Amino acid sequence: MQESEEYKFKGIPITALIAENIILRLFEGKIVERKTIVENVLDFHLSNGGLKPNGVNYIGPIKKALRKLQKVLQQILQQDIGKSEQVKNLLLTQRKRMITC
């Protein structure tokens, strides 16, 4: 999963904000296990010139990014934007599957 253009986070330790950006880039619209996200996000960041996070826990920033994205998804699902009940139920089911992975 290499980046073709100049990686904008080159030389920067991974943070939750960077991890969020990478998660959306690599996994938007996909249902994957959290373990897969953690492994691929860090790999992508490091292979494109990014640095490990300051501190020992490299998973922390990625987990924080996932929590934020879950909150955003929940807010979207709670808004009444004219979706049918069937579509809302489908989105809720996908969200539950993402959280339990």
Could you explain the architecture of this structure?
- The longest helix is centred in the C-terminal third of the chain and has 19 residues.
- The chain is 60% helix and 0% strand.
- The protein is mainly alpha-helical and 101 residues long.
- It is built from four helices and no strands.
- The chain has one domain.
* Shape category: elongated
**How many structural domains are formed by the residues?**
1
> How many DSSP E strands?
0
Order of helices and strands: HHHH
For the termini, the CA-CA separation is 22 Å
User: Residue-averaged pLDDT, rounded?
Assistant: 81
Percent of residues in beta strands?
under 5%
The count of helical stretches stands at: 4
Q: How helix-rich are the residues, as a percent range? A: 55-70%
Low-confidence stretches: none
CA radius of gyration is 15 Å
Major beta-sheet overview: none
Query: What structural category characterises the helix and strand content?
Result: mainly alpha
Map the helices and strands.
Layout: H1 16-27, H2 34-47, H3 60-78, H4 85-100
What keywords describe this structure?
mainly alpha; 101 residues
In short:
With 101 residues, the chain is an all-alpha fold. It has helices spanning 16-27, 34-47, 60-78, 85-100.
